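Thread amino acids onto this structure.
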């Protein structure tokens, strides 16, 4: 196995956090929740779009939690989400959504409301700001990935990780690590199923994404609603979408990349935004492990996502579509139970990932055994940013150079005039 180089050093975190925020977060004493084994967990959903609805739905369907407060920049998102959760929760005999907050300062209202945790599913640009507000209010947090779109934001989140430690539970939306088949595969690789990992290969070929439109929207509102096509708001697809595969590399190798070479282009999808539509990246991990990665995001309806690890004793494969296996000296196939029963293994490896993560998070709050994935989330986001910056700058980029860059992006949109 590749030896772990350990996550971002504490010294790097502290140094950069001071540069990034100029302050040290103090979680309000007494506002963090104590263990609450028997009570229903109330969720505040900040960012009522596709992912927020999906993850909050998994909490309601797979735990005894309920969504009680919503916040969003735009009224139409609040209306549809409130209706959805009122109907879903009524069927389950749970409460209705009691409050909604709209506009650019809605995040400040939701963190002060009577909820146990805030699910942050706003666009990535806002994640450091929204995370800090949740932690300042002493609430548990489930933060969607990526944790930021720039280096400074990642370092701020890493610094917030230190301050959150032991006081609240903090998850980051890398649900694949909770998927039962993915985690079984990773455990086998850690146990040496293919020997010391020599090299890695992965890809994220995705379909194009829908354009968002509402009548009468201003150019600024159009840009915000279509944040995924903006580098500054979304981080570019390497960071916004492909990050799941890079997180899997880091997870299995128990390390972050040391340097990267990359290229990216905007060749097919040129009608909107400034993000690239395809990427080719080579990462160099400790122990001379090289990892290739390729992505596209422009075809109308085709997509496939997967990764392979190669070692002297065999190789592993993992695909979103369901085929997870190890071939070589220690063969294994996910879903082999159904194979033994004479059937082809049919598994949905992503199917149980978010539900299991939701259950583990609620349990951590109820038991008082708090999780803290902020540092790991910052590290995976920085790993994706490393590939992105190597491509943008057209040169090899090292981890140290990236952290030292203190890269900081600000949108030209006046967010206070939206919503
Ligand atoms: N873990 C996963 O597999 C996964 C999958 C999809 C998306 N995501 C992540 O989830 C997040 C949201 O993605 P999405 O696809 O739901 O996007 P979306 O555009 O559908 O939803 C974002 C929501 O946030 C709202 N919003 C925008 N700015 C806001 C602000 N300043 N304050 C409050 N609300 C604001 C928007 O109006 C919208 O309702 C992103 O970080 C994305 O990368 C994760």
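Threaded sequence (419 positions):
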């Amino acid at each position: 196995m590749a030896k772990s180089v350990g996550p971002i050093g504490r010294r790097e975190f502290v140094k950069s956090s001071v540069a990034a925020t100029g302050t040290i977060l103090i979680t309000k004493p007494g506002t963090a929740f104590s263990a609450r084994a028997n009570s229903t967990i109330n969720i505040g959903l900040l960012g009522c779009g596709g992912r927020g609805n999906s993850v909050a739905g998994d909490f309601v369907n797979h735990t005894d939690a309920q969504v009680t407060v919503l916040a969003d920049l735009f009224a139409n998102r609040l209306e549809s989400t409130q209706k959805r959760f009122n109907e879903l929760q009524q069927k389950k005999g749970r409460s209705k959504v009691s409050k909604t907050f709209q506009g650019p300062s809605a995040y400040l209202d939701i963190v002060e409301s009577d909820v146990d945790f805030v699910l942050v599913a706003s666009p990535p640009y806002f994640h450091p700001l929204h995370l800090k507000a949740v932690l300042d209010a002493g609430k548990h947090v489930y933060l969607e990935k990526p944790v930021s779109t720039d280096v400074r934001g990642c370092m701020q989140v890493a610094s917030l990780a230190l301050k959150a430690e032991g006081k609240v539970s903090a998850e980051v939306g890398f649900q694949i690590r909770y998927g039962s088949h993915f985690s079984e595969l990773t455990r086998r690789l850690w146990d040496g199923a293919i020997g010391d990992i020599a090299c890695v290969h992965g890809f994220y070929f995705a379909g194009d994404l829908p354009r968002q439109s509402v009548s009468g929207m201003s150019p600024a509102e159009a840009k915000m609603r279509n944040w995924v096509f903006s580098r500054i708001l979304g981080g570019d697809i390497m960071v916004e979408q492909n990050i799941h595969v890079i997180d899997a590399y880091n997870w299995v190798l128990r390390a972050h990349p040391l340097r990267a070479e990359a290229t990216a282009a905007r060749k097919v999808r040129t009608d909107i935004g400034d993000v690239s539509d395809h990427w080719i990246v080579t990462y160099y991990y400790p122990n001379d492990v090289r990892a290739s990665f390729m992505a596209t995001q422009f075809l109308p309806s085709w997509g496939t996502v997967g990764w392979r690890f190669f070692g002297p004793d065999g190789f592993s494969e993992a695909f979103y579509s369901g085929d997870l296996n190890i071939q070589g000296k220690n063969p294994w196939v996910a879903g082999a139970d159904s194979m033994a029963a004479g059937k082809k293994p049919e598994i949905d490896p992503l199917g149980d990932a978010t539900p299991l993560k939701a259950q583990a998070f609620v349990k951590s709050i109820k038991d008082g055994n708090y999780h803290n994935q902020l540092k790991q989330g910052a590290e995976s986001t920085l790993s994706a940013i490393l590939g992105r910056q190597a491509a943008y700058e057209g040169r090899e980029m090292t981890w140290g150079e990236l952290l030292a860059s203190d890269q900081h992006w600000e949108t030209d949109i006046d967010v206070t005039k939206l919503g």
